Amino acid sequence: METTITVAKRYLDALAAGDFDAVAALFTENVAWHQPGGNRFSGTHVGGGAVGQLLGGQMAVTGGTLEVKPTGAVMVNDALFTLPVHFTAKRDGAEITMDGVDVFRVEGDRIAEVWLFSADQTTEDAFWDAA
């Protein structure tokens, strides 16, 4: 469990610093990122390149305004950790501000899988797919 806690702390530190290169370095080569919903970014993205494209696409669409901030303590269960979050973004006159929970699976000393859960998926889908 110490490794999971260590990885979680490294993730939090990189996220707080806005150091997305450090975040990406925490992922395994074949990381699987499960983006919820039914929008242009939804689905399972496998591999560092695919996850980088997903996150880069979200940053491009929002003009770099997408922010994810922890709202509570990391919770650890063996190789899994969860993080309650609040995310905000702006695009084309639209704004989103929403709570969520991110779940991570650690393999060795890196993140192998990520699942995101949003408080209101319908609203999030509408934000990402707004014309």
Q: Mind explaining what this structure looks like?
A:
With 131 residues, the protein is of the alpha+beta class. It contains four helices and seven strands, in the order ααββαβββββα. Strands 1, 2, 3, 4, 5, 6 and 7 form a seven-stranded mixed beta sheet that branches. A hairpin with a 2-residue loop joins strand 4 (75-77) and strand 5.
Oligomer: single chain
- CATH level-two architecture: Roll
- Tell me about the biggest sheet? 7 strands, mixed
Order of helices and strands: HHEEHEEEEEH
| Number of alpha- plus pi-helical segments | 4
The helix content, as a percent range, equals 25-40%
The end-to-end distance, rounded to whole angstroms, is 45 Å
Structural class: alpha+beta
CATH class designation: Alpha Beta
Question: Quick one: overall form?
Answer: globular
Count of discrete domains: 1
- Compute the CA-based radius of gyration: 14 Å
Q: Provide the β-strand percentage band.
A: 35-45%
What is CATH's topology name?
Answer: Nuclear Transport Factor 2, Chain: A
Low-pLDDT residue spans: none
Overall pLDDT: 94
How many strands appear in the DSSP assignment? 7
InterPro entries: NTF2-like_dom_sf (IPR032710), SnoaL-like (IPR037401)
Protein name: Nuclear transport factor 2 family protein
Domain SnoaL-like: 9-114
Pfam family, one: SnoaL_2
